[in-house]
Structure formats: structure tokens, C-alpha cells
Amino acid sequence: MADDELHDELHDELHDLQEQIFELVRRSQEALLDASRVFTDRLATAVPGEPGQLDDLIDGAYDLTERVLRTQRDLAKKVVEAVTAPLAPHPQPAEDADAAGDGDGARDGGGDDR
């Protein structure tokens, strides 16, 4: 198998993995949002109390939802970064350039002729 074919196959497999991860994140977000809506709807009809107390409970539920969504967004970004990192071109480290003889004098004794 040629390098280009191997690279294309790896790219396709990584793309499929990314799609599966995105679908998982999307489903979990939808489930969390649905649960938050059900919670707030039931809370508003089931809990007696002052409207201010209910508002605080509702705000707390949505604050939790926002934190979870933010965490999922961060996770998705990290997964994409981890999955795509092997495909990204890697710059040649500086010491490899020195070993290749870039003319800085490091291999010929550094120019100190004592």
C-alpha cells in the first residue's frame, strides 16, 4: 500500500471517528437540555413557594446545563485536536537542522581555536 493510500485510509478512519464523537456529544447535549426543560417545567408546577425561590431553582438548573455544555464543547475540541494531531505536519526540530549542517559552526568545534 502506498503512503498516499495509507494516509487517505487513516484520514477516512479518523473522520469517521470524529463523526461518531460529534454524534455522541450532540445526543448527550440534547438529552441534557430535554432533562433541564422537564425539570424546570415540573418544578414550576409542583413546588409551592415564592416566585423568587422558583426563579433561583430554575436559574440553578440552567447554570448547570451551561456548565455541562461548556465542558462538552471543551471535550469535543480536545478530542478533535487529539485525533487530528497525527495528521498535522510536524516541523523539523532545531537540533535536527543543526545535525544536517546548517552552518552555525556547532559541529566544527564552535569556532574556539585555543
Could you name the key traits of this structure?
elongated, 3 helices, 114 residues
Notes on the protein architecture:
This protein is mostly helical and 114 residues long. The chain has a domain of 62 residues. The protein is built from three helices and no strands. The chain starts with a helix and ends in a 15-residue tail after the last helix.
Quick rundown:
Helix content is about 75%, strand content about 0%. It is mainly alpha-helical.
Describe the global form.
elongated
- What is the H/E string? HHH
> Structural class from helices and strands?
mainly alpha
Number of helices: 3
Indicate the low-confidence ranges by residue numbers: none
How much of the polypeptide forms β-strand, as a percent range?
Answer: under 5%
**Quaternary status:** single chain
Q: Radius of gyration in whole Å, from Cα?
A: 27 Å
Please give the share of residues in helix: over 70%
Q: Calculate the terminal CA-CA distance, rounded to whole Å.
A: 55 Å
- Biggest beta-sheet profile: none
Number of strands: 0
Mean pLDDT: 75
What's the topology here?
Blueprint: H1 3-46, H2 51-84, H3 94-99
